Amino acid sequence: MRIMMIDRSAFHGSITALLTPFADGKVDAKRFQDFVAWQIAEGTHGVVPCGTTGESPTLSHDEHQHVIKLCLDVAKGKVPVIAGCGSNCTEEAVRLTRTAEKLGADAVLQVVPYYNKPTQEGLYQHFKAIHDASSLPVILYNVPSRTVASLNTETIARLAELPRIAGIKDATGDIARPVKTRASCGENFRQLSGEDSNVLAFLAVGGHGCISVTSNIAPRLCAELYNAYAAGDTETANSINDKLMPLHDAMFCETSPGPVKYAAALLGLCRYELRLPLVPISKANEKIVDETLRKVGLLSADAVLRQKA
What we know:
This protein is 47% helix and 13% strand. It has helices spanning 29-41, 61-75, 90-103, 120-133, 144-147, 153-160, 177-185, 199-204, 219-230, 234-251, 258-266, 283-296, 301-308, and strands at residues 13-17, 22-23, 26-27, 46-48, 82-84, 107-111, 138-142, 165-170, 190-193, 209-212. Strands 4-1-10-9-8-7-6-5 form an eight-stranded parallel beta sheet. The chain has a two-stranded antiparallel sheet with strand order 2-3. The relative contact order is 0.13.
C-alpha cells in the first residue's frame, strides 16, 4: 500500500450528503450527474455519494460502485468526493473502501457499525482495519440515533492517532462534543457537523463544516453561510442561519431522506421515488415542506401546484 500525505484542510465547508435519484426502480444516472454538477455550480464545498441520504442501505453492490463513479466523473478535481463506504460488517466496509480508492475517491465516510452494538474496543478495531486497508483518508461517522453504538471521545482520540483517520462527522447533536474532541485530537482533526440545525454553533466551537441534508435543496445558502462565517462576517452568517432554520426543521419532519427527496422533486431535481422500506412522507408533512419552501423563497405556490399536477 502506498503512503500518502493527507491534506485534511480540503474537508471543510458545506458538504452535501447527496440524494440518489431513481427512475422506475433504477438509479437515474443522468439526473444524478446533473444534480452533482448543479451542486458544484451553486458553491458546495464537497459531496458525499452513497451516504444515508443517498439511501445506501438499499443500493446493490454494483449500484453503490456505479453511483460513486457517476459522482467522480462530474466532481473529481472540482470538489472533494467523500464516498460513503460504511457497513456493520468490517469486511464489507473494507471491500467498499478499496473499491472507492480504485475509482479515485478523495476520502471515505465510515459509519459506526449498526445493529451489532460493538464495544469501544470493537469500534476501534473496526475503523483501524478500514484505515489499514487503503491509503484513503477516513472520516468517521457517529450517528447514535441510527446506530445505537456511539464513539466516545477517548476512542476518537485513539483513532485520531492513526495517520489517515482525518476527521469525524458528528451527528450526536451534542454541541459540547466538538470542544472535547478538539482538546483530545487537535485543531487539524476535521470536525464536520451531521446536524444541519447546529452548524453555526458547531463552527463557533471549533468545527470545520457540515455534511448536510438541507444543502441538497439549498446548496447556495448553505455554502454562503459557511463562507460568511469563515470570512468573519458573523452578522451575515447569522442572518442566513435564521433563514435556513425552518428548512432544517422541515427536512427532518419525517425520516430522512423522505422530506428532502420530496422537496427536491418539487424543485424538479429528481423524481419523488424512494426505495422500500422508505415510503413517501405523509400528506401533513408534505404540506409542511411545501409551506417551508415557499417561506424560504425556494419555490412559488404556483410551482408547487404544477409539480403536483
